[in-house]
Amino acid sequence: MLAGGLLLLATQACVVPDPDEAIWIRIPPDDPLEAVAESLATHGIVPSAAAFARFARLGRKHRGIKPGVYPFVPGTPMGRVLADLRKGRPDAVRIRVKEGVWLAELAPVLSRVLDLPLDSLTAAARDSTLRARLGTTAETVEGYLLPGTYYVPVQSTPPEVWRQLADAFAARWKPEWDARLDTLGLSRHELVTLASIIEGEGGGAGELALIASVYHNRLAQGLRLQADPTVVYALGTRTRLYNKHYGFDSPYNTYQVNGLPPGPIGQPSRASILAALYPAETDFLYFVATRNGHHEFSRSYREHLVTIRTLRRR
Fold first, then answer.
1. Three-class SS of residue 62?
2. Residue 94: phi, psi to the nearest 5?
3. Does residue 101 sit in the same domain as residue 227?
């Protein structure tokens, strides 16, 4: 099941240096010091909002804080943070990466907004160094472009664009998740791939863990995932599926291949990553989407068929 409205972008004048692994913080005009400090603390840039506010008030230096968009690495000394906030920054483009968007959908928009050649952006998404940093064995950085709002420097090169988005993913990956991967017997790449499929199924946040349980159960039993979003991704166009599509020859079509596809099929949200990491404990093996966007779950194929017939009668 596909969620609509996958991409939203807008431009805004801001600034940008180029530290590799940074979290981007927007300071609106006339924002009080307390709000600035709270934003920095919330994103882990400074350890305490109160401590930063006290520090900034020494010598009334907080009065020199300029609005803009700033990249900070968590744990940066407060003196450095304050100094950067007092300097200001150059122009950037505000980009919103929506959950589930494909790299193939995102690249043309970035090309247009940043005035970069599409073929250069596409090639940069295949950069082996960046893919190695992320630990992906797929051909591109698909799946590792963390959904959220970014402020991309207007002078960014294609590699810098993807690195900024991918670094946000790496920065927000929690160490305890690696221990959980060992428990699940999955690599991070496999987990992100599974999370992208869960994202593609849509549904309410309360159903993500149930959807995840179905796929974990099917993997454990050696059953094909038979996930519709993988077929759509394989086709390369967001279209309604018909019977003829399920036989489409592609390593991403999980109706035709065993196990997980070779890589993610879009950008999973944090909620879908958590669902893949911590699925509900069920014995469900099937589910079907309802007209209201929810899902009905079944334990057997016979029960699944009954559910489908019931939904069709409705």
1. helix
2. -85, 125
3. no
User: What digits encode the pLDDT tens for the residues 6-54?
Assistant: 333 333 333 333 334 578 788 888 899 999 999 999 988 999 999 999 9
SS3 247: helix
Q: Flag whether the pTM goes above 0.85.
A: no
Asked whether residue 101 falls in the same domain as residue 203, the answer is: no
Query: Which pair of tokens denotes residue 140?
Result: 């591109």
Report how far residue 50's alpha carbon sits from residue 129's, in angstroms, rounded to the nearest whole number.
40
Report the residue count for the chain. Answer: 314
CA atoms within 13 A on the CB side of 220: 14
Instruction: Supply angle C-alpha 297, 199, 270, rounded to 5.
Output: 120
**pLDDT of res. 190:** 97
User: For 104-133, what is each residue's pLDDT tens digit?
Assistant: 999 999 999 899 999 999 999 999 999 998
Q: 148: helix, coil or strand?
A: strand
End residue of a domain, out of 172, 189, 223: 172
Q: How far apart are the first and last CA of the chain?
A: 19
Which amino acid would we find at residue 217?
N
Identify the DSSP state of 7: E
Q: Is residue 286 part of a domain?
A: yes
Per-residue pLDDT at 21: 57
Average pLDDT, stretch 57-74?
Answer: 88
Same domain? For 96 and 164 the reply is yes
User: Could you tell me the strand order of the sheet in which 92-97 lies?
Assistant: 7-9, 92-97, 148-153
User: Buried b / exposed e across 61-75, counting CB within 10 Å, b at 16+?
Assistant: ebeebebbbbbbbee
CB-count exposure of residue 153 (10 Å: 0-12, 13-18, 19+): buried
DSSP assigned state of 45: S
Q: Which residues pair with 286 in a beta bridge?
A: 298
The β-bridge partners of 94 are 151
